[in-house]
Amino acid sequence: MQRAAYLVEAELIGSFAIPALQEDLETLQNSDEIFYGYWIDHRLAGAISYKKEGGLLDIYRLMVHPRYFRRGIGKALVSFVEGVEEGIERIIVSTGARNLPAKKLYEGLGFRDIGEREVIAGLWITHFEKCKRF
């Protein structure tokens, strides 16, 4: 599912240098990220992973299988994580600068664009953050 989702992003941003496209199952299993999945009819339709350190929640991956695009799965996964983790003061996430659907999703969820950065030659990412007010 990860490969299918990130191949779509690679096409959108014009670069196949996305690290997630180079990972295998063993790499994912050995990561120290927290994962949640979104299932439809016993099929994994989407997933989110993140790390939490103190009041900071860093979303590492948000992926939806292309078969399930535009069904609110990404929004549901981010909202779920916001609700399940306590003590979050700030959430950060990044996406390809030319990935307009992802950027629109994060902005719709209340994230603000905090800038772009070229991570390798020709590959730009946009960073987002959301500060929680309690």
TrEMBL record:
Pfam families: Acetyltransf_1 (PF00583)
InterPro entries for the chain: Acyl_CoA_acyltransferase, GNAT_dom
Domain N-acetyltransferase: 1-134
Domain of life: Bacteria
SUPFAM superfamilies in the cross-refs: Acyl-CoA N-acyltransferases (Nat)
The protein's name in its UniProt record: N-acetyltransferase
